[in-house]
Amino acid sequence: MCDLVFDKKDIKQFKSRGLTLQKVISQIETFKKGIPFINLLRPCTISDGITVIEKSGLHRLVEIYSQAALSGRVMKFTPASGASSRMFNLLLSFNNRYEKIDVRHISAKADKGDSDYITFFQFIKGIKQLPFYEDLKSAMSKNSLDIEALISSGQYKEILENILTSKGLNYANIPKGLIKFHQYTDYSRTPFEEHLVVAALYKLDKNGVTRVHFTVSPVHLDTIKEHIAKFLSRYENSGVKYETTFSTQKSSTDTIAVDLENKPFRDREGRLVFRPGGHGALLENLNDIKGDIIFIKNIDNVVPDQIKQDIKIYTKAIGGYLINLQNEIFGYLERLSRRDVDEQLLKKMSEFARYQLSIIPPEGLVQSSKDERVNFLFSRFNRPLRVCGMVKNDGEQGGAPFWVKHEDNTLSLQIVESSQVNLESDEQRAIWESATHFNPVDLVCGVRDYLGRTFNLLDFTDPNTGFISIRSTNGRELKALEMPGLWNGGMAKWNTVFVEVPKIVFNPVKTMMDLLREQHQP
């Protein structure tokens, strides 16, 4: 059957990407079968899946964390391969639609209540507050354009072209991490800079070294390295030493595209088409760095200096919370591995599993033999651990924490995206809409076992999660497969703890308008 589908050129093509024939066939089977929806049981809420750290306990957790950081156990992992095009979607739409964009046209549409045009007016009104305004002004002056005169006369087309295209800043075609986000007295900082600055606040070891790993796009790797090299000395003047490393998404995590009949999709030259496997493909990068305690935060979730100190204590606290849990888990695993447990200790471990890690044992386990209970606890404790900082949802779009019911009737805590839920079901939609909290804004991971060995993180994914979407290329529709999300299905079989953190720690820049929010202004 395989020979009927693929010829020698096809096999050579996907083998050059590090893909096997079996893996490609498996991906095609996934398209045919579809990806099952997740079965939501109820949202995680305070005291039912989400823990609140009392302020009185913050100092103790910070101290626990600080000792681990000094010993060199900690590093920062920042997914930074995202393009900035989505950030400028509205401006791109206007620039591509119109040969001329003037104030009368925009005003007429805005007066009719069109939200896009209202937002565009807000953008023009606030443009001088954007941290890259002076760069834009300079770029336009080189082209003999006076940005202030164009704004005053209500002529906007040239402004957009100089923001978005190679005529000026080319911001629509570079990584988001290279966009200037925050203005300071003498200079502006990009997200790459902000991540390095914040890393020095809470990830220094006893030698003053802070370790930061960025995942970046292969095409922009050299540019990003050059960018960081330019300013690194500015932040190392305070005695901080940076150990910055980089990786790119592996071609072996790409997925084959198919047509609407689930047959391999080919380009005009007859070559198979492969697409990036999505955010979840970065699990391999996380696995490869062989870390210990790893903080994960997206490239666009950064704040200026005046807010960093407010965030630092909560970042350290969730790190301390993880280490505190880890210490207890490791102690139990040592006893379980030696079978050095009595009924009283087994009961204590079972209560810890239920109330601290939200591990709900299968029905009837309590009546099982001692060996069966020991084996169950050992297998459930001996997993990677993540503590996820969650904020209350005030209407932001994105995933949320839920209790999920699996096919074997077991329950677990999961971070779920809307694409994973059958929203046509009234019951599932009602549960989805009742979520009180939002995607993790800070994630700290323990990726070593009780013997100090790194877990193979690929063993703890749920391959039955992911997402199939319909895309278009050169006017032809195709189906694309995204791997289980990094903190969705990619970490589905980890031990998971949700901890509420203040809203102030969540400040992503998803659109250019977010840069005009108070928390991103000087």
Number of helices: 17
The 3D shape can be described as: globular
**Percentage of β-strand residues:** 15-25%
Helix and strand composition category: alpha/beta
Could you give the distance between the termini? 63 Å
Task: List the strand order in the largest sheet.
Answer: 2-3-18-12-15-11-4-7-8
Rg, nearest Å: 25 Å
Helix content: 25-40%
Low-confidence stretches: none
Mean pLDDT: 92
Largest sheet: 9 strands, mixed
The number of distinct β-strands equals 18
Total number of domains: 2
Topology (SSEs and partners):
Layout: H1 2-5, H2 8-16, H3 21-33, E1 39-43, E2 45-46, E3 49-52, H4 58-70, E4 74-79, H5 89-97, H6 103-111, H7 115-126, H8 133-142, H9 147-153, H10 157-164, E5 182-183, E6 188-189, H11 191-202, E7 209-216, H12 221-236, E8 241-248, E9 255-256, E10 274-275, H13 283-288, E11 293-296, H14 305-337, H15 343-357, H16 370-381, E12 385-392, E13 400-405, E14 411-416, H17 426-433, E15 437-446, E16 467-473, E17 476-482, E18 495-500
